[in-house]
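Writing this down once: the sequence line spells out the residues, with the fold written below as integer tokens. This is how one looks:
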Amino acid sequence: MKNISLPDSETPWTALKGVKSIKVAPASGPVVAELMVSGSKSVSNRALILAAMAEGTSVLSGLLRSDDTWWCADALKRLGAGVVFEGTSATIAGIGRTRPKSGPLHVGSAGTIARFLPPMLAAGDAGTWKITASKQMSKRPVGPLFDALRAGGAEIECLEQENCFPAIIHGNSFAGGQITMSGAVSSQFISGVLMGGGQAKNGVELGVEGGIVQSEYVQITLDVMRHFGAQIDAAADFTKFSVVPGSYRARDLAVEADASTATYFGALAAVSRGKITMGNLGKNTRQPDYGFLEILERMGCVVERSETATSVSMEGQLKGGFSVDMRPLSDATLTLAAIAPFADGPIHMHGVAHIRHHECDRISAMCASLSQLGIKVEEHEDGLTVYPGSPRFGVLDTFEDHRMVMALAVLGVAGEGIELLGPESVSKTCPSFFEQLGTIGLKSEEIRG
């Protein structure tokens, strides 16, 4: 097995390599376009992991091709799974509980993989693996996950800082059984334990305390697990889960569009007074960020929803003067903050203290960015309040955060333009973002160092 030689988060699918910054020009008029949004990261990585844990061959279509999914596929191949990509489709030859005896695995900055891989390894056959992560990801604690796995017997050694990567995971050590954990930090911890529970000797009887941050993502996990044959019972309030031990079975799956990425295009329609139709995002999605469309309606947009497509259109002044709990759709907080200056009243976003611990402290980073552009903003422990204003042109750090890149790009389109430093982090979830801006008539310029 070859050593990993790529930089700690860069992959062959990374866009904008060698680009120091990117200048985004203001829109010259309303943006009117139809487009297809890239595949859901959440569904893509769950499907890849579970297809690899299954017995048999699955074909996954509509997958997201991004840094996160590349690191996922790389880890699965190193574990012996067959992973062959063709465009946005992949054929996965599953390995069941079989694992190689040892080897290095790297997850880059892929948060979902960092949370889903340890349970997969600990619940599978015997072996020892060292998991490393990017410098950024290694700073993000995974204590609730490791504690829950250890409660089920998992042997995990943290090599530098407790409850952080790098870590060594021992296979055939997570027997499962009765486990209690908090859901207040990240739903991904719960999803990881449930997915691993399907291969644990005793299954999992999981109790969750303190509510679940973005419980809709746990529902997505349950849906994909059941698709691959898992038997699961869940309490209506998601305080208890029961996963029956058994084998995952191979099945084909079509991945829907990413609702988080869709928020940026919906926001572009809103701030440009245009109309954007997203042809592969339907009203029946379980992704919580689809709820961002209701916020756009509150701001005066017209949203049309069908089984297979969604469109957003806007005429006139965006409306503000309200407060909104962003906890159910926290990834959309930055999108709303980016368009809030163009509303006719302040917008208060709350309930998202946990986003201070994502790729960056997103609350602090967005407040600093808006202030630098001349926008009045108040920072709160669990959110921010953005006041109406006219953002000036600015050169801004993006804090190695893909969502800061895309949100600030939307702001630049609506305002006087913007220059974004370190835009390559957009490859984490949407490498084609700036290409897509070009296809709908928006201009950007790459600046190389």
